[in-house]
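Exercise 7. Given the components listed, write out the predicted structure of the assembled complex. Treat all entries as one system.
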Amino acid sequence: MQQWFMLTVVGKDQPGIVARVTTRLFDGGCNLGEASMARLGGNFTIMLMAQYDGSIDALRRLLAPDVAALNLHLHIDGIDGHLHAHVVPDTRISVFGADRAGIVAQVTTALAGAGFNVLDLESDVAGTERQPIYVMHIEGCAARGVDALEQALEKVRREGVEVRLVPIDTMIG
Amino acid sequence: MSLLDVVTYPDPRLTQKAIAVAQFDDELRAFVRDLEATMRGGPPSVGIAAPQVGRSLRIAIVDVSVKPNIAHHGRLVLINPEILHAEGSVVGREGCLSVPDYTGNVMRAGRVEVTALDEYGSEMIYAFEGFEARAVQHEIDHLNGLLFLDRLVSRRNDLFRRKVYK
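Answer.
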């Protein structure tokens, strides 16, 4: 059976991190699965699936030179590598407004209460330091339908957050 | 009538420009029936093109009538189709029988006018819009050796849905 690990790498962003880490993994006998990199507030973050025959400790030793040279934080978990089983989202939710604490909690709590399962979430703080704005995109499955979501989001909207809900009609041809 | 095997990427037959149909005979109509049965018999899909079953012929079938509340022309057999006119551009999510387990955003014209022959060789002219226009463009791409993978746009930060009609 294939052995999979989830690697989480965080650090100060600089050019060449992905190339260096993935080359080291490839040379060390890893096969990468799915990966997601994001630059969050100037910080480099990546989560990547790696198939590897050795132990967590061996994987950590393999990456140790790069972790030290680039001053990265590395976290490794053993995982099940469930590939070829993507869930297709049916709803996209876009949220924006003046930034304040609690927007993500309010929106996602409302969604969860209406049977929504989040498959993908990304958000940015844009605008300026004096007038920050918050922009978030969520995709997922509305198990209890869009009307239930709309109803649940009314309360959030009344508190001044713009929330737009758009069905994702995937055309399979 | 039989179900045909669907070829999947990276099969090179998906990247070839298909050949125009010249003979509108019973053999063609039998193949169209098999192609349609393959589309309806497999994973849910609203279109299929001959290259997806390994035949280099300019034949596509589209039927988006299962989608509620949209404009459509029902079951369409599009042979040697040509896009006469296209306008607007809309981002939408697509998947493909020939690219299992992946969906992505693709920019398509919002409206297209298409001429095509049916399985008896009669020339038809259609005006498609929205979801049906997207399906027709996706299938015509197959006839030109293109997959939606060739046209992917970023899934991140895509704009709120908007329609732009010139």
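Discussion: The radius of gyration of chain A is 20 Å. The longest helix of chain A spans residues 56-69.
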